[in-house]
Structures are given as structure tokens and as C-alpha cells.
Amino acid sequence: MSDPINEALVLYTGFGSSPFPRAKTPHLIQRFGEAEGSALKGRILDLLEELQQPIDGLEKRSKKSLTERAIEQLQPRHPELDDSGLKALAWTYAFGLR
Question: What is the pTM of this model?
Fold first, then answer.
């Protein structure tokens, strides 16, 4: 069974259904219930905070974007994240760079 964090990331950020990221706590509560929805929101906020940490190797020349580097740095520490969760995080992070 996959970790619900991936579905929660998509619901919470609005990835794929909103023109920009937005915190949709009611969607988490409706889908997962009060207790699990709140716990998932905490995990999401922790992941978003972790993405804000300094990125290793920025002094090296690379054709990769800052978003790609941030996700590559985060991914090995969070094997529970699948493609949908990583895409929702990348979209939210990239939007914040604007």
C-alpha cells in the first residue's frame, strides 16, 4: 500500500487542479478525516520547509534548474514520495521562486 502523503500533497497544493499552489486543508480533512488529515498537513509542511534548506553544489555549473536540484536533494531522504508527490512539491517550490 502506498503512503497517503502523495495523494495528500496533490490535494493540499492543488497540483493539477489549480493555477497556483494553495493550502487546501479542508480537502485533506474531507478525504482523510480530522486526525489523519492534520497529521498529513504537518508532514507536508515539514517537506516544504525541508525544500527551503540550502542546496548542495550550487557553485558547480549545471544545466539543471534550482527546482530540479532541490527535488534531487530531497528525494533520497524520502523514499515514500512517488512521482505525483514529487511533482506536486516541485510545482509548489518552483512557484515560490517566482
Answer: 0.87
